Automatic annotation (TrEMBL):
Catalyzed chemical reaction(s): a uridine in RNA = a pseudouridine in RNA
Protein name as annotated: RNA pseudouridylate synthase
Pfam families, sorted: PseudoU_synth_2
Positions of the Pseudouridine synthase RsuA/RluA-like domain: 89-236
Protein family (similarity comment): Belongs to the pseudouridine synthase RluA family.
Any single biological process term in GO: enzyme-directed rRNA pseudouridine synthesis
Keywords: Isomerase
Superkingdom in the source lineage: Bacteria
PROSITE patterns assigned: PSI_RLU
PANTHER family, per the entry: MITOCHONDRIAL RNA PSEUDOURIDINE SYNTHASE (PTHR21600), RIBOSOMAL LARGE SUBUNIT PSEUDOURIDINE SYNTHASE D (PTHR21600:SF44)
Length: 293
């Protein structure tokens, strides 16, 4: 069972019922039903009707005493991890380029999630989102499966956002800022690749040029959707392929993919405080980036 105890402080003097508060916290309706019928939500130690208005400084106890939507299981890994942020419920890790976020089959143990399994010792990791194997940077991981659907809803309503830095080849002039709105589908000729295709899923990327010269640009990228290889495909399609991309850049490769997930923004579950987690590229990555400008 996962238990969460919160001392409630209303935002902007709002007056919310228990039902309205659970909705604001993005707790799925089915779980709200369980909390009500099993009387697993307590206000100051007692169960109350869902129409009860929650008061400032009320102590809310949530007992998630029912099965989560899905379970995730990982074998322990043997690599150290770079922890950028950690609290009782989540951990944010800086993934190295060339390392998978998660195993493809349960018997594998050579991915970031395997390494976090070892790090947590008495707990287990639950994947919220992933980044490509070649991409480095921040990955948000939950310590309980009961937070995964809450973060999934944040991804859907754009309160969980991911920002990247990339160095791109300028095979065509790039505007100072813009939005790429092009659908992405599987490449029928290569199972490893994706491509812009009208039959694909909606995909939207915002970009801003931070620095550029005649051959390269350093760009800031925001994912508004989360399709596989989205940034790499969108940029390559516009003739701005990411430097050292082994799949989508025709230029010679001279090192790691220059794509780094440097910023995560999300709302802290059950509190709605805005959390902003940032990380700097590794020294090697930083030196590679600076070499182009």
């Amino acid at each position: 069972m996962y238990q969460k105890i919160i001392t409630y402080h209303p935002e902007n003097n709002e007056q919310l019922t228990i039902r309205e508060l659970l909705k604001k916290w993005l707790i799925p309706k089915k779980w709200q039903h369980f909390l009500r019928t099993q009387q697993d939500i307590l206000i100051n130690g007692k169960y109350h009707s869902f129409n009860t208005v929650v008061q400032n400084n009320d102590v809310i106890t949530l007992n998630f005493n029912f099965p989560p939507r899905s379970e995730q299981h990982y074998l322990p890994g043997d690599h150290p991890i770079d922890v950028v942020y950690e609290d009782d419920d989540i951990i944010v890790v800086n993934k190295a380029a060339g390392r998978k976020t998660h195993p493809n089959i349960m018997t594998e143990n050579d991915s970031l999630m395997n390494d976090v399994e070892t790090y947590l010792k008495n707990g287990h990791p639950y994947m919220v989102h992933r980044i490509d194997m070649e991409t480095s940077g921040l990955v948000l991981i939950a310590k309980t499966p009961y937070l995964v659907p809450i973060f999934n809803r944040q991804l859907s309503d754009k309160t969980l956002t991911r920002e990247y830095l990339a160095v791109v080849n300028l095979d065509r002039e790039i505007p100072d800022a813009g939005e790429i709105n092009l659908p992405i589908d599987q490449d029928p000729n290569d199972v490893r690749k994706r491509m812009v295709k009208s039959s694909g899923l909606n995909a939207v990327t915002k970009y801003e040029v931070l620095q550029k010269n005649s051959d390269y640009a350093l760009v800031k990228l925001n994912l508004l959707t989360g399709r596989t290889h989205q940034l790499r495909v969108h940029l390559a399609y516009n003739h701005w392929p990411i430097v050292n991309d082994p799949l989508y850049n025709p230029h010679q490769k001279v090192g790691k993919l220059l794509l780094f997930a440097h910023k995560l923004t999300f709302k802290q579950p059950f509190y709605n405080n805005l959390k902003i987690i940032k990380s700097k590229p590794s020294k090697n990555m930083y030196n590679l980036i600076r070499a182009y400008f």
